[in-house]
Amino acid sequence: MSGALSVVPAGVLSGVEALKLFEHARENKYAIPAVNITSSSVANAVLEAARDIKSPIILQVSNGGGAFLAGKGLANDKQQASVAGSVALAHHVRSVAPLYGIPVILHSDHCAKKLLPWFDGMLDADEAYYKINGVPLYSSHMLDLSEETDEENISTCVKYFQRMAKMGQWLEMEIGITGGEEDGVNNESASAESLMTKPEQVYKVHKALSAISPSFSIAAAFGNVHGVYKPGNVKLTPTILGEHQKYAREQDNSKNEKPLFLVFHGGSGSSKEEITTAVKNGVVKMNVDTDVQWAYLSGHRDYILSKKDYLMTQVGNPEGADKPNKKVFDPRVWVREGEKAIVERVKESCRDLLSENKL
Ligand SMILES: [Zn+2]
């Protein structure tokens, strides 16, 4: 295998380069972890993990993550904070990613119908950046109209994809619902049937979008649920992704064994076997949010509990009443402990998705 860096450069990729990277992943049977980013600290930790384990990586921002990046003290009634925070993250990642020496896809997560002003704001920023640099600010965005009818879902994707394709940008879309709750979107009461997609449904998307550009992926639901649940409470059926590939291949008379680029949402807490089956069936991107959130908290928690007696006053600890604690409560020390835990968790995802040593 020639490594990913033989087909794409290090740093943030354009949409055209993202296509080359996803093709590399599909050919070499691995998927790339996509981690939700809420701060520069989290972004840097994820980049560090990918560098250390020699994996390409996807950094993504959710609508709520964008607002958080801009600052929770800001109003967001017109999605202005979500737009500003998402743009700010992109500039941060663009600035530091080349130093890590790995290919990075910069992506935005679920955008439901009511959040389209956020999407429009990001595309405005992409187009402005494209005018100057010849590449969009973001490599890729996700539209999630899965709660609407398939007709409205697909026609909205077509409309936006026509605008994005002019910049060579990648589009991820969702069909079938991801259950559970994430970022304020609650699908906990969705019916079991709506969590599972049919081959005809997925092919309709493929047909409509491939007429515009090859740079898109489909998050086709196969029983996925956001968040972590007790094992056995979520019934994932990644084998149906193989049926989607087969149907699309037959319809198009394609020589490509896996013509669809598929995305795995709600992967936190799923078994290694489910992950392996999904990758085998053409999943090239898997979202990892909840497990990384948990890792970040764990790193902070363990540090604070172990240093408790040094963290109750600025001066004075078990070594003496006049001993200063500044070196213990400096945020660069305790935030770093959360980052170290993220590094380990993201490496685990790279191993699960077989993206380790793929540069
Ligand atoms: Zn998702």
Automatic annotation (TrEMBL):
One of its GO terms (cellular component) is cytosol. Pathway: Carbohydrate degradation; glycolysis; D-glyceraldehyde 3-phosphate and glycerone phosphate from D-glucose: step 4/4. Keywords: Glycolysis, Lyase, Metal-binding, Zinc. The keyword Metal-binding applies. It is an enzyme of class 4 (lyase). Belongs to the class II fructose-bisphosphate aldolase family. Catalyzes the aldol condensation of dihydroxyacetone phosphate (DHAP or glycerone-phosphate) with glyceraldehyde 3-phosphate (G3P) to form fructose 1,6-bisphosphate (FBP) in gluconeogenesis and the reverse reaction in glycolysis. This is Fructose-bisphosphate aldolase. It comes from Wallemia mellicola (strain ATCC MYA-4683 / CBS 633.66) (Wallemia sebi (CBS 633.66)).
